[in-house]
Amino acid sequence: MRLVSIYLKGHYLFTEDQVINFGGEYIYEFKFEADKNKLKISRKNNKQFIRDFYGENVSLTSAIVGANGEGKTTLINTIVMNFISGNNGIIDCEAIVFIFEVGDSVKVLERHYGETNFSREPINFKFSILDNKNLATIYYTPILDIREFYINNTKSLYFDLSKYRFFQKDTEEDTGSFTALSEFHLSENLKRWIIFRKDFNLDFKNIPNFNRIKINVNRVFSITSESNFDDASVDFRKIAVEFYEKWRDEYHNKATNKRKLELNIILSVIEKIFKILEGTGNTYLREGRVGLTLERIKNLNLENSLYLFLDNHYFVKEGSQDDVKVDIRLPIYEIKELIKTLLQNLPDENEIQKNHWTEYEVGFDAAVQIINAYQKFITSFSENFTHDKTILLTFKPEIDLSSGEKGLLDLFSSFNSIKKDIKPKNILIFIDEGDATFHPSWKVKFVNSIINILPKIFENKMIQIVFTTHDSLTLSDITDSNIVYLKNRKILIRNDKPTKSFGANITDLLAHSFFITEGLIGDFAKEKISITLEWLKSKANEKRKKDNQKDLFEICENITMLEFKNESDEIEYHKKIIKLVDEPLVKQKLKEMFIEFVSADLEFKNEQIRELENKLNKLKGE
To answer: In whole angstroms, what is the distance from residue 242 CA to residue 226 CA?
Structure first.
């Protein structure tokens, strides 16, 4: 099953009705006859179609391409939401007709708004109505854009993998600041990466293979002196300083590498606790009581001193003369569990490097345990204490990842997170700007990555992929008939769109007016080169005038020529500009004009001789 064509009527994005063809076995044409309220549909063979071209489990791969602001995301949202809406009404247009090829048959699904219902008349084929209960739909985008789509059907086969939805899902247990929410989201994201790597314990081409997670323990607050506090209870300040002094005494008194790491972990958790107490402000926290004397912890180590404090601390009602206790305490269990989980997963003594006493690496299972304990620790303060923005623990793979590698891990781990929830055999996948954050070297790998990895994630399923992009670098892996071009509020057809894509040279793709109308050179460089070009043209005309000949070139009046003290400075300046140009064809033409119309420059002549000699040697096979 594959979605091959769409007819859009009355969409606000376009000035007229539009037809989309995704590159199926046939190209479909639609003609609406208003006087008869009839939509005629015909089709013709797609000469570029090759069955299983993108893999035996990939029915079709297509692209929607256009510059930023052309409406790619709007169009894909219209397609997705109208397809899954059922009888809940149509979105953004008057009518939409979906054409599916299912084996040798054609299936149709349509949505209408109000009185816009019309009859359909297939000209040279037959069709039946599609039952879309056998098709799951997935939408993915790495862009954090607020999306408020409402689906009333709780059994919907639609899966929203947008960054916004993941952000909502990952942070639903916390209502803190954006910093806190981001921290939760990043932790959950890393857990998805870990699960993806565990599920696919093999080397995917272009996917980084990491096997361990590096944990950094951050110092977040100084408790070296009572003067560092403003809002924490006076009693709490004293015990905090006592904790610091215990850490200092043991840390600097022949502690092993592993013990130093343990001490730093415990102290950092303590600092986080008191940073939270400071941030909560002048409420009942001002009336905190330790509930024990410092003498009782004199001979205890740092962790046991902390645990004794947690077990005995309490808060009293503000202004209470009789120390009336309030039913509020620090989250004792979650604090102890975090410390316990961090300490029980420490490496052996010989694996800890000297001076690396605030970081260590763990395996996947341990990383998930620590992340879960850390998240429970953070949320346990939310009911009675102000959230503190400082980050106690940071997690990352043991290898450095580029933005492209992170983007691919985000992409595939997101799909992997829902694979068990998808029951239908067929899956329609929409990827919106999936390559947006990629370096050019990763953009050219994008299509090959998704057509190889997604079928492994959705094993024994038949998938179709439609992705949007504004970058031509991604398109050299897509056949021309499978590309939908958006420009100037319409979908381009026939002669209006580029005719070369699959296997095309990237420069050829970029050079087409669809992608850029004013050349491939940056504006600053273009301005500098244009001045030199106009100068060369003026020199050519001057030379022809001396020979009583007509001007060879028309001079552009919009370009302001530079002024120089003398002719030699002028010549030297433009010669330097020519030498700076790295585009070979442009540089060669400028050099030829310089030699012909300005000066038989020996340097430029020798360069041309060497280039010709190299070409001659290549022809001789030397």
So the answer is: 10
The alpha carbon dihedral of 608, 611, 612, 613 has a sign of positive
Helices (H), 35-120: 72-84
> DSSP 3-state assignment of 291?
coil
Side-chain half-sphere exposure of 52, counting CA atoms within 13 A: 3
Measured CA to CA, the distance from residue 1 to residue 462 in angstroms comes to 8
Helical packing angle, 584-597 and 523-546, nearest 10°? 30
DSSP 557: T
CA torsion angle 331 335 337 342 (round to 10)? 160
Instruction: In whole angstroms, give the CA distance from residue 554 to residue 444.
Output: 41
Distances (CA, A) of 423 to 34, 80, 81, 362, 431: 41, 19, 20, 35, 20
Structure tokens at 523: 């504006």
pLDDT at 284: 45
Helix axes 364-379, 332-344, angle to 10 degrees: 160
pTM of the entire structure?
A: 0.72
Position 154 scores a pLDDT of 39
Q: What is the pLDDT of residues 92-115, one digit of tens each?
A: 778 888 999 998 899 988 887 765
Taking only the tens place, the pLDDT of each residue in 453-508 is: 999 999 999 999 999 887 777 787 888 888 888 887 778 776 666 666 676 666 56
How would you list the strands of the sheet with 119-122, edge to edge?
26-33, 38-45, 119-122
Per the prediction, the chain carries an average pLDDT of: 82
**Tokens representing residue 66 in the block:** 């256009």
Compute the distance between CA of residue 151 and CA of residue 149 in angstroms, rounded to an integer. Answer: 7
How are the residues of the chain apportioned to helix, strand and coil, as percentages rounded to the nearest 5?
45, 20, 40
Nearest by Cα to 211 from 196, 224, 226? 196
DSSP codes of every residue in 348-369: PGGGSPTT--SEEEE-HHHHHH
Element (DSSP H or E) covering residue 376 = helix 364-379
**How far is Cα 523 from Cα 529, in angstroms, rounded to an integer?**
10
Distances in whole angstroms, Cα of residue 34 to Cα of each of 37, 123, 142, 304:
5, 17, 41, 83
pLDDT over 80 (residue 203): no
Confidence check: pLDDT of 149 > 70: no
pLDDT digits (tens, 9 = 90+) for 288-308: 778 788 888 888 999 999 999
Task: Using alpha carbons, select from 122, 70, 100 the residue that is nearest to residue 6.
Answer: 100
Q: Calculate helix-pair angle for 302-312, 332-344, nearest 10 degrees.
A: 160
Spatial contact of 314 and 325, defined as CB atoms under 8 Å apart: yes
Look up residue 146 and give its DSSP letter.
-
